[in-house]
Amino acid sequence: MKIEEFEKIMQREDREKKQEDLEKIWDSKSEWFFKRTEKKQENFSDRLIFKIIKEKDLLNKNSKVLDIGCGTGRHLLEFSKFTSYVTGTDISSKMLDYAKEKLKNVSEAKFVHGNWMENFTKEKEFDLVFASMTPAITTIEHIKRMCLISKKYCLMERFVYDRDPIREEIEGMLGRKLNKLHSNQKEYTYGVWNIVWNLGYFPEIYYDKYFYEAEKTITDYMEQIICTDEEKNKIIEFLKGKEKNGKIMSKEYFIKAIILWDVNIF
Which of 34, 106, 180, 187 has the fewest CB atoms within 10 Å, measured from its CB? Predict the structure, then answer.
């Protein structure tokens, strides 16, 4: 396959939206996203991606890290335990507000609002260029730019599988599949790996498999389900039956793909 074919595989339908539209979308999601990630019952620092960084000695106290699409700064905070020279960039100013608050005690932390392709053009500026779950990486040129501005490593992370038994029960009740969550598109990872390979690098891939007890509300579920008004009423009644003291407990299962490559062949 030609490299352009892999680009088509990784691209999402909303890639043509204007920057202003994307900023409004992510600004509106910022509070929900922050609350959702902060209340997850998991030890985030134990995730495989940070173990890889530690075991492979990818960072030291002088390393410079760029997190593309850093969101509320969850990964940045973990990176700051290795080095204080961390930079987060995001198209959403409200997401960055959360990140700034989270890293207020990290002296060298920087935050850049806007289109990262316009703001980061300097060759070999960072030791590690990182991107997790972000729609900001959708083209061959994006990956080339990651390689250009890194003097050592590039690292990407993406969900390739997630399972929520309660969503499955809803599907059984409705007799149809629910809309996929946007992060659960394993074809994206397939496209990225092959693009990096075709650019002449040697990407390594790892899989982080884990589960945790999720605490959600009816609103949390309904915000991620596309349905008719009739279906909505059925789903809400079903979820009320699962609810205890305003909360719904569900054991969720995930697999993240982690792609790491060195921009230097030797």
Answer: 180
